[in-house]
Amino acid sequence: MNPGLRLKLFLMMVLEFFIWGAWLPLIFGYLPSLGFTPGQQSLILNAFPVASIIGMFFSNQWADRKFAAEKFLAFSHLVGGLAILGCGFTKDFMPFFLLMLVHCLLYVPTISITNSIAFAAMKDPAKEFGIVRMGGTIGWILAAWPFTFIFVNWDAVNAAKTSGFVDWIGTVFANPLTGDAAKAATKWTYIVSGVASLALAGFSFTLPHTPPKKSQGESLAWLEAAKLLKHPFVLVLWLVTFVDSFVHNCYFNWTGVFLGTPTTAGGVGIASNWITPVMSIGQIAEILTMFVLGATLKKLGWRTTMIIGILGHAARFAVYSFMPQSAAAIILIQVLHGVCYAFFFATVYIFVDAYFPKDIRSSAQGLFNLQILGIGALVANSICPWLMQEVYTNAATKAVDFKGLFLVPLAVASVAAIALALFFHPPKTADASAGGGSAPAH
Questions:
Q1: Angle, alpha carbons 146-149-153 (nearest 5°)
Q2: Which domains does the chain have, with CATH numbers?
Q3: Quick one: average pLDDT of 359-369?
């Protein structure tokens, strides 16, 4: 792949994940601040996984069989960008929910589409995808850090009358927004996300032309992809992907609240303007992990690499459970997010490209996104608010039992790793029955 094309694909991934990373980390605390009930919160949060499920049967099918992928990407981000932009200007449940639903219905399929565009342009996906997908990690980080300055009490900073840059930056970091002011500022996460989506809509027309594929068999690409679940190794991976997605979404549901809760209430006590930067440490580590992903796959193979990714979740929740008062340990353990994502989810995407037929590429990616972004997230977003607010919150003191809460995903992740070790046995190379090309040895 030539450097110019690689840069375009890299920038595509930057914008694609900037859009999501701008609003996701803070939505879990923002929705309760708007007065939405746990049920209403779940409906809004589940717009994303429901969109993934619907996209499996419609959007990915169109991209595989009907439309050029880059044009589909442009349309989706134009309309979806306007929708998420609107979320920043409403505080009522029904408009917020409908706008989020429209955005998700159009955004979620583009995650598969961007993967498909990238894989179509690559000669050696196992080697090249990690570098291109690293753009998504950088996009997520870029979405997080500006809010360090948005969530600042600028009245207090201006009143301090600082002298020099060092004094000024120290004052900025020492005066985060709190309470209602911090909650009100969260609307900017949706506005920033919308602007980025509109930018990607325009940029999509510069991407390489990726036409729909002609089928040699089943006319419904999603059905042809689903038929490959008859292979035991594909089915096992698909089910484990659901479990890992559930655990992954537990992290996003609870970590922001855990970090921002005062130490007296069992949390870490991190200032509001530092929550997203602390969570972005995992994405910084993900950059390094993506660099070594190709070499890791070649040396360790699919199964071992994925198991390490799942165990990263278990280790992180173990620290959350047993060292909640150690802010240093909690911050440091965020680096495992890079291992969790790259060694499992990114590896799954590469595996799918290696083992599934090329004419159902988008639908094959969508089949696993059905678990990663759909069913796994749906279950987590339905259960997590209830677990935190009803099961693990003391009715009298309103304090959350974070230790007990985090033991749930710790146990689930451990079981998933064991299941993958025992039952996931793919052939050493992809064959015609499950895709074309070659795959790393095991």
A1: 155
A2: 3-423 (1.20.1250.20)
A3: 72
Which whole number is the average pLDDT over 91-107?
A: 94
Whether the pLDDT of residue 203 is over 90: the answer is: yes
Q: Which two tokens stand for residue 131?
A: 């570098």
User: In the predicted model, is pLDDT for residue 60 greater than 80?
Assistant: no
The pTM is what?
0.73
Both tokens of residue 291? 């660099």
Residues with Cβ < 8 Å from 52, sequence gap 6 or more?
Answer: 108, 109, 366, 369, 370, 372, 373, 374, 377
Identify whether the C-beta of residue 40 lies closer than 8 Å to the C-beta of residue 97. yes
For the stretch 142-173, pLDDT in tens is 887 776 677 788 888 888 888 888 788 778 87
Confidence class for position 423, pLDDT limits 50, 70, 90: very high
Which tens digits make up the pLDDT trace of 6-46?
899 999 999 999 999 889 877 877 888 888 888 898 899 88
HEC per residue, the chain: CCHHHHHHHHHHHHHHHHHHHHHHHHHHHHHHHCCCCHHHHHHHHCHHHHHHHHHHHCHHHHHHHCCCHHHHHHHHHHHHHHHHHHHCCCCCHHHHHHHHHHHHHHHHHHHHHHHHHHHHHCCCHHHHHHHHHHHHHHHHHHHHCCHHHHCECHHHHHHCCCCCHHHHHHHHHCCECCHHHHHHHCHHHHHHHHHHHHHHHHHHHHCCCCCCCCCCCCCCHHHHHHHHHHCHHHHHHHHHHHHHHHHHHHHHHHHHHHHHCCHHHCCCCCCHHHHHHHHHHHHHHHHHHHHHHHHHHHHHHHHHHHHHHHHHHHHHHHHHHHCCCCHHHHHHHHHHHHHHHHHHHHHHHHHHHHHCCHHHHHHHHHHHHHHHHHHHHHHHHHHHHHHHHHHCECCCCCCECHHHHHHHHHHHHHHHHHHHHHHCCCCCCCCCCCCCCCCCCC
